[in-house]
Design brief:
single chain; alpha+beta; 19% strand
């Protein structure tokens, strides 16, 4: 059953990186791929590891460095042939938006951010968004559906603030209106609950500008949403 909500955009930022997307272990893993062993790193801080990683990546051709990052992120998900193909595409394409599977988008966004630093702009600057929404409802029980399938409920809700012709609404029309929204968690890269009361909730969303850039000029809107249909166990 659909519920009536009001959504207010409290803040909206364009971003080109996600905080803490890269940690010391990530830099060490990449340096290891470039034949720089743990014994050469000594007691380096995370900042020093990052600097060494950026300098080391720059010693390779751009597509070779892209291959290191893709292998780090997707070694158990993508074949070596596909990784090689994507590494060449990354130099001229915006794969964090263009890859057919949105499950890859956030990791590709993070990869572009590091590669752009290493090559001083050779790679396209990734475009993301971080925005805060306040959701209010007249009835306390309206929020019960949020506990059933939060990501699906939020994407369906926020999509109402976009034009019908928006890319998100066109590509995921069936999932938005349907009973299952498996791609919702891939669309909302990071979903953080900021506050919760009986009649109001606030969330911080990090995602791609591709999906939600249009909200930059939106202040508030009324919308309906619904949870995914629960699977019924059969005896």
């Amino acid at each position: 059953m659909n519920k009536e909500f009001n959504v207010e955009i409290l803040s909206f930022l364009k971003i080109s990186k996600i905080e803490n997307a890269w940690m010391a272990d990530d830099y060490k893993a990449l340096l290891s791929m470039m034949d720089i062993g743990e014994d050469e790193l000594g007691g380096m801080s995370e900042a020093e590891l990052k600097e060494m990683c950026l300098m080391s990546l720059n010693d390779f051709e751009a597509h070779e460095s892209a291959r290191f990052l893709l292998a780090h992120f997707f070694k158990d998900e993508i074949t070596e042939g596909k990784i090689d193909q994507m590494s060449h595409q990354m130099v001229d394409s915006n794969l964090w938006e263009e890859h057919a599977d949105p499950a890859y988008h956030m990791k590709l966004f993070n990869a572009y951010g590091l590669l752009r630093k290493a090559y001083n702009g050779t790679f396209t600057e990734p475009t993301g968004v971080k925005f805060t929404i306040k959701i209010t409802a007249n009835k306390k029980d309206s929020f019960e559906i949020f506990d059933q399938s939060l990501h699906a409920v939020i994407v369906r809700l926020v999509s109402s603030g976009l034009n019908e012709s928006a890319i998100l609404n066109r590509l995921f029309e069936e999932q938005i209106s349907g009973e299952k929204f498996p791609d919702a968690k891939n669309i909302l890269w990071i979903l953080k609950e900021l506050s919760k009361t009986d009649n109001e909730r606030q969330y911080e969303i990090t995602s791609s500008y591709l999906w939600f850039g249009e909200l930059e000029d939106v202040m508030s809107f009324d919308a309906n949403t619904h949870a995914d249909l629960k699977e019924v166990d059969e005896d």
